[in-house]
């Protein structure tokens, strides 16, 4: 079998290190050979340290630096009562609207980012008994072509109190 290029370079390095070690007979004849052997040992330690630091740096570059910030959420709702004297059918139905907005507090960069840029996904779960199994979930998921928005809103017909559950999935590496 023919060795690959990396395998050849590794074996060449091993040979080089073996070639650097002086035979015992030469060490006995040359008094400075002990200093040379000490330098070889130091070189091995230095190579190990450099390799360890190189791996540490590569690992650190994979993980972004953590920054602790506060994201203030504003959740509000609006109720629009039914209008009995409305001529069109849309205006006569009672409806409500839920809004979810927010902003980053103490942002040192002073760069205002859209609210949706902090999340991978957002799910609003409404009461399944009121809205049925097909209409009780409102989902938003980030895609590569997603346009950022300052908030999310859900509008539904009805005049009853509705229990809502918000599931916010943070994007730990926002743009």
Question: What would you note in describing this structure?
Answer:
- By secondary structure, the chain is an alpha+beta fold.
- The protein has 2 domains: 5-62; 70-170, no CATH class.
- The protein contains 4 helices and 6 strands; from the N terminus they run αααβββαβββ.
- The strands form 2 sheets. A 3-stranded antiparallel beta sheet has the order 1-2-5, with no helix packed on it.
- The longest helix is centred in the first third of the chain and has 30 residues, at 33-62.
- It is rod-shaped and about 115 Å long.
- This is SWI/SNF-related matrix-associated actin-dependent regulator of.
Task: Briefly summarize what is shown.
This protein has helices spanning 5-20, 24-29, 33-62, 128-131, and strands at residues 70-80, 95-105, 119-125, 137-141, 151-157, 165-170. The chain is of the alpha+beta class and 175 residues long.
Distance between the termini: 49 Å
Q: Give the class from helix and strand content and strand pairing.
A: alpha+beta
* Radius of gyration over all CA atoms, rounded: 33 Å
The figure for the number of domains is 2
What is the general shape? rod-shaped
Kindly state the percentage of residues in helix.
Answer: 25-40%
Q: Provide the low-confidence segments as ranges.
A: none
| Main sheet: strands, sense, barrel | 3 strands, antiparallel
Helix segment tally: 4
Q: Would you count the extended β strands for me?
A: 6
Strand order of the largest sheet: 1-2-5
Order of helices and strands: HHHEEEHEEE
Portion in strands: 25-35%
Mean pLDDT: 83
